Amino acid sequence: MTIHSNPTHVTHGFGPVWDADSRVLILGSMPSPKSREASFYYMHPQNRFWPVMAALFDEPVPEPDPEIRSDFALRHRFALWDVIAECDIVGASDSSIRNAVPNDLAPIIRASRISHVFTTGGKAAQLYRRLCEPHLVENGITVPMTPLPSTSPANARMRLPDLTAAYQVVVQSITRTTTV
């Protein structure tokens, strides 16, 4: 068995999930190969993002169908996208990301009610701070960002209840902006 360690240049391949009523934006780094294949967010069967969100909103885990999961996100007023539009990457390894080109977050933040950004994982937070935040500030947009732990199966040290507890701030932020 040959292990490929050469990075591949990949493009994101699908757009954000959001609408004018979105209150928070949840950003990953770059979709995994499984997510790029399905053209939707957090589609690796072992990624715990959707079980976490289902637990937060006290609902069953949405079926692994982009339309169903998009409806779930919009109904609960969270937008989904990624920090990176394209990069060089080995598989799904965030630590291998090189030559990252950021997505332009300004248009959807301006056209929605997004008042808080959350990143899933350390690399997404690092790249957001370095690549996205300066561009937002240049465009007169200041929005707080909170880094959250990765829901990836690679983050095995955090169990589902721990992730759900960490992600509770997402619901609090949505609720706070909904009642204001």
Explain what you see:
The chain has 180 residues and is α/β, with parallel strands linked by helices. The chain has one domain (8-179): Uracil-DNA glycosylase-like domain (Uracil-DNA Glycosylase, subunit E). The protein has helices at residues 33-38, 49-56, 66-75, 106-110, 122-138, 160-179, and strands spanning 8-11, 24-28, 78-82, 84-89, 98-102, 116-120, 145-148. Strands 3-2-6-7 form a four-stranded parallel β-sheet. It has a three-stranded antiparallel β-sheet with strand order 1-4-5, covered by helices on one side. Strand 6 (116-120), helix 5 (122-138) and strand 7 form a beta-alpha-beta unit. The chain starts with 7 loop residues before the first strand and ends with a helix.
